[in-house]
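ok new one. same drill as before - structure tokens go in, u give me an amino acid for every spot. 205 of them this time. try not to just spam alanines like last time pls lmao
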């Protein structure tokens, strides 16, 4: 007869996440080194520091549950990290590499968000609100890290990767835009951050 309980599964998943965070500490160091953009490098370095705190937070959770601090190899994050490593070995130009590092990083953050979402829910249902609060703090950090990466991608890194090889910021026109016939009378915002074409049709009214 099977005797494993949700509490056993909870402890297993905590061990999985503990191992996952440790793998990510190594991976984030490599990603920071591979980044060709100061803001992106800073984002990886900041999340590296947060990740070290997440490891400590998990150690606190093990303590609250009276369980031994122990990791259990996380195959899922290992696969995501391995895919990220293959991308880093590709011969991409700098801007494309930055876009790819963000793509890899976001896969990892989403994996972690799924894991911590479950851990918070299970901690609550098992009556460990103290553990749930700690795990929620980590979940919030993972979500913020994901959003930061989206903001960097949409705030210029994807544009840089998509644009012409010699990236000249003086040129306001995107490649897909037809040449403007006349200057718009008002220019409220210099450039759409997501690279969407300006609404030139409105200039006629
Ligand atoms: Fe993490
Ligand atoms: Zn895992
Ligand atoms: Fe993370």
């Amino acid at each position: 007869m099977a005797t494993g309980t949700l509490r056993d599964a909870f402890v297993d998943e905590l061990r999985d996440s503990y191992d996952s965070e440790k793998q990510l500490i190594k991976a984030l160091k490599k990603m920071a080194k591979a980044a060709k953009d100061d803001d992106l490098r800073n984002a990886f370095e900041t999340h590296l520091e947060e990740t070290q705190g997440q490891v400590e937070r998990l150690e606190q959770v093990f303590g609250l549950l009276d369980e031994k601090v122990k990791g259990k190899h996380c195959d899922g994050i290992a696969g995501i990290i391995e895919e990220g490593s293959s991308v880093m070995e590709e011969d991409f130009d700098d801007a494309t590499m930055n876009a790819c590092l963000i793509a890899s990083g976001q896969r990892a953050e989403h994996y972690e968000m799924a894991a911590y979402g479950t851990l918070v829910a299970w901690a609550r249902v098992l009556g460990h609100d103290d553990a749930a609060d700690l795990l929620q703090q980590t979940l919030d950090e993972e979500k913020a890290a994901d959003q930061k990466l989206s903001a960097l991608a949409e705030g210029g890194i994807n544009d840089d990767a998509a644009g012409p090889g010699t990236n000249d910021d003086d040129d306001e026109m995107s490649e897909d835009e037809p040449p403007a016939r006349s200057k718009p009378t008002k220019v409220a915002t210099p450039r759409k951050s997501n690279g969407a074409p300006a609404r030139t049709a409105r200039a006629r009214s």
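Residues 16 and 109 are 15 Å apart (CA to CA). and btw The two ends are 77 Å apart (CA to CA).
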